Structures are given as structure tokens and as C-alpha cells.
Amino acid sequence: MDALKILIIPGSARDGSFNRRLAEFAARQARAAGQEATLLDLRALNLPLYDADLEALSGVPAGALRLQQAIQASDAVLLVTPEYNGFPTPLVINAFDWLSRIPATQEQPAGLAVTANKPAGLLSASPGAGGALRSMNFLRQYLQMAFAMVVVPQQFALGRAHEAFDATGALQDPRAVQSVETVLQSLARLAQALKTA
Q1: What PANTHER family does the database record attribute to this sequence (predicted)?
Q2: Which DSSP helix (H) or strand (E) runs through 138?
């Protein structure tokens, strides 16, 4: 049986990002469980702020096509995002807004076609006690309603993230480790079920 391919997308690209650290930890846990985990850096896609005039002039940027290809090649997607004023980061929303604008051609499906029925999981991290929970709740609705993704019910918000990791990048609290693994296991079960259906 082929290993499940999990695309992990940190919603923050800043140096020292707690969400990138959580995404990297989740990737190691997924690999330890026998899955192929790939991290995608949204900032490296070099996507401009979505603008319909820019789209009309230049079309969809190449970075949006790379995001589409990465999602299409995966069996499931794990988004790991902080919150900005209680909402998912502009980095995430802008990338998915561009993704939604990709039209179908003879060579490729539409952007929305690759997200439809794609399993998704959610993690978040914040120095605050809530762990960016509000961001995940908005993101769940956004992915399900606008992109027809199947978001697993299990999710995990890592609070006090500035104290959560050891020097190797591992989570220090066994309960937090178990919570991440619960999300990964739920995502893997759904992805496997849909893959073999």
C-alpha cells in the first residue's frame, strides 16, 4: 500500500514562527507514522495581493499553480495557522483566493476542482492561552464552504506556544503531542478511506 501523502501548510512564514515549528513537528510525527509529509512555504509562492485587475492583465500567478499542483498531488492537507485579530492570516487567505481563480484547461483542472472533497486538518499555535482557536473556526468554515474540503472534526490549538517546544523542536507536553497525533490520525483515516473508496 502506498504511503499517504500529507501536504502541511504553515500559515505564518516569519522567522521563528510557532506555527511553522508546530507544522514541522507534525511533519515529523506523520513521517514516523509511515506517511509522506511535505511542507509548503506560502511566502515562497510570491503571490501578490489578489486583485481582479491584475488577474485580467496577467492571469493567475505561477505560485497559485504550484499551490494547486501540491494540493492535487496530496491525499490530505494540514493547515497550521496563527490568528491575526481572531482571523486566519492574510498569507493563507490570499493564497487560497488565488487558487480559487484558476480556470480549468485541457492540461489542468480548475483550482476549486482539486480542493473538492480533499481531506483537511487544522492545527494552530499562539502565545496566548487560546492557541489561535478563533482562527481555526473561521478557517474551517472557509475551507468547507468555499472550497468543498472535508475538514476532520478533531483539531488542536496550542496555547502558550512560546513555552511549548524543547530545544529540538519537539512539544514538551505529552498531552499536546497526543492532541497533534489525534488530528493526524483522524486525517489519515479519512484520507485512506477516500483513497480506497
Answers
A1: CHROMATE REDUCTASE, NAD(P)H-DEPENDENT FMN REDUCTASE LOT6
A2: helix 133-147
pLDDT tens-digit series, residues 118-134: 999 999 999 888 878 88
Label residue 1 by pLDDT band (50, 70, 90).
low
Helices 18-32 and 174-196, packing angle to 10 deg: 60
* Segment 70-120, tens digit of pLDDT: 999 999 999 999 988 889 999 999 999 999 999 999 989 999 999 999 999
Query: What proportion of the chain, given as a percentage, has pLDDT over 70?
Result: 99
Going from the C-alpha of 76 to that of each of 17, 32, 54, 145, the distances in angstroms are 23, 17, 31, 17
C-alpha distances out from residue 136 to 40, 75, 88, 195, 196, Å: 19, 21, 7, 25, 28
Whether 124 and 135 have beta carbons less than 8 Å apart is answered as: yes
Three-state secondary-structure class, residue 144: helix
**Helices 90-99 and 62-73: crossing angle, nearest 10°?**
90
Q: How many CB atoms within 10 Å of residue 168?
A: 7
Q: Going from the N-terminus, what domains does the chain have, and what CATH number goes with each? A: 5-196 (3.40.50.360)
Q: Where are the beta strands (DSSP E) in the chain?
A: 5-10, 36-39, 76-80, 119-125, 150-158
The residue with cell 496550542 is 158
Give the pLDDT confidence score for residue 10 in this predicted structure.
96
Using CA atoms, how far apart are residues 10 and 91, in angstroms rounded to an integer?
9
- Cell representation of residue 21: 515549528
